[in-house]
């Protein structure tokens, strides 16, 4: 029973090491204990950018499209705060204004996007107890 564990006895491989190129009894290569280089070698250099009339025309078209998109009423501009230090109080005052500023028209949006009010699961409505105190005579008549 003592020798039935995995750590006892001769070490055996679960695969044939001769199939991967090592002869039986030959020393295996040393383990490499150093980290990989921080950056991979760049054997292939990037291709230089194309220059010419066609590329200049496409660049002008792209810039014109971006300018047109920024002029549209649907463009949401990012408001940048120019203060170096953000104040704690101001951060929360601005967030309240943002939430109050936009109220969506839920008729135009799908129902799945509308937030739902959470209800407690398993909470049953309590039955209203009768406020009239029952007299002993009524109870006795019910028993009979």
From TrEMBL:
Keywords linked to the UniProt accession: Nucleus
Region annotation (Disordered) ranges: 91-144
GO cellular component terms given for this protein: RNA polymerase III complex
Biased composition (Basic and acidic residues): 91-113
GO BP of this protein: transcription by RNA polymerase III
Keyword Nucleus in record: yes
Compositional bias per record (Basic residues), positions renumbered to this chain: 114-128
Subcellular localization: Nucleus
Pfam families: RNA_pol_3_Rpc31
Keyword Nucleus on entry: yes
Main localization, broad class: nucleus
Family: Belongs to the eukaryotic RPC7 RNA polymerase subunit family.
PANTHER family found in the cross-reference section: DNA-DIRECTED RNA POLYMERASE III (PTHR15367), DNA-DIRECTED RNA POLYMERASE III SUBUNIT RPC7 (PTHR15367:SF3)
Protein name: RPC7 polymerase
Lineage: Eukaryota, Metazoa, Chordata, Craniata, Vertebrata
